[in-house]
């Protein structure tokens, strides 16, 4: 793309000072549709999770055996032998076999219950937080067959409460060149936008009709995270670092008083909780939503296409 025609972007602003100012935190979140936090997690705990995830890739022969594990360098001949269907399965950037092992990790699901996350979302919502158990890992292999996630709004896919927020946390350093997350600042105020079919995770792309918003993006370090509203448009940047795997977690939260769609209580992927829980030691992480009294809203397939339109 000609630099002269490249869309304008703005850098992320660190919202950490707002953690002690709940009213201002809520005000800025409502205005921007997202909040970025620098060094929210300890680097050591992120690198521990990174090691667990990369260890699974190593078991499957998908990492270069001659490089340090934490470098996350792919075994390119093995990756290149994977089909387009394999690397684009379920929008998570890796194979079903790898993802099944990830979903069985108690430590992966425990991360969504991090005390700092629950405290921060409690301040944002002004009430008790409910972490969705449908946790997602993005394990994006360096494959030319992998499709980049297009601009989209999460609400079309999760439904339930529009006040659901996603935490996107990179598991390692993710500069823009590795394909971090970009946010269309303020787009949460535009409501539910039109979509068209697209390749990449989710299979839908938001139609951006000269809304006047700017993209916000930046380089992430291990420990940084970003949270965004379910109507905030966001997208992945392309991975321009040959051979490097990109790891991140998508964790979702909502006020416990708000309605929910039943699929948000199911595992991400065609798996069953009973099987995933084998070997777990923390009963507090298992079926914890059964202690709540939710209002369930049915999934409305029609809203995914009723706004299909061209600008």
Automatic annotation (TrEMBL):
Transmembrane segments: none annotated. InterPro entries: Phytyl_CoA_dOase-like. The keyword Cell wall biogenesis/degradation does not apply. It holds the Pfam family PhyH. Signal peptide: none annotated. Keywords: Dioxygenase, Oxidoreductase. The keyword Ligase does not apply. It comes from the Bacteria. This is Phytanoyl-CoA dioxygenase family protein. It comes from Paenibacillus lycopersici.
């Amino acid at each position: 793309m000609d630099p002269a025609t490249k869309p304008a972007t703005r850098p992320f602003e660190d919202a950490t000072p707002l953690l002690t100012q709940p009213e201002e935190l809520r005000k800025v979140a409502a205005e921007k549709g997202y909040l970025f936090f620098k060094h929210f997690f300890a680097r050591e705990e992120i690198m521990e999770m990174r090691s667990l995830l990369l260890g699974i890739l190593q078991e499957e022969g998908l990492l270069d055996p001659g490089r340090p594990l934490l470098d996350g360098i792919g075994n390119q001949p093995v990756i290149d032998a994977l089909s387009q269907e394999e690397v684009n399965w379920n929008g998570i950037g890796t194979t079903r076999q790898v993802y099944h092992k990830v979903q069985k990790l108690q430590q992966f699901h425990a991360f969504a219950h991090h005390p700092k996350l629950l405290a921060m979302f409690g301040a944002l919502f002004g009430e008790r937080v409910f972490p969705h158990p449908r946790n997602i890992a993005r394990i994006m292999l360096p494959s030319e067959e992998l499709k980049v996630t297009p601009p989209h709004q999460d609400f079309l896919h999760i439904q339930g409460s529009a006040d659901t927020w996603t935490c996107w946390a990179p598991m390692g350093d993710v500069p823009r060149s590795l394909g971090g997350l970009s946010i269309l600042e303020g787009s949460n105020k535009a409501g539910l936008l039109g979509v068209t079919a697209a390749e990449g995770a989710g299979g839908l792309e938001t139609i951006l009709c000269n809304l006047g918003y700017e993209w916000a993006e930046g380089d992430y370090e291990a420990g940084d995270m970003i949270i965004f509203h379910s109507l905030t448009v966001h997208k992945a940047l392309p991975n321009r670092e040959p051979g490097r795997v990109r790891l991140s977690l998508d964790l979702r939260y909502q006020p416990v008083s708000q309605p929910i769609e039943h699929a948000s209580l199911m595992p991400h992927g065609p798996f069953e909780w009973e099987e995933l829980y084998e070997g777990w030691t923390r009963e507090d992480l298992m079926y914890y939503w059964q202690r709540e009294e939710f209002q369930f809203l049915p999934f409305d397939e029609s809203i995914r296409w009723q706004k299909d339109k061209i600008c």
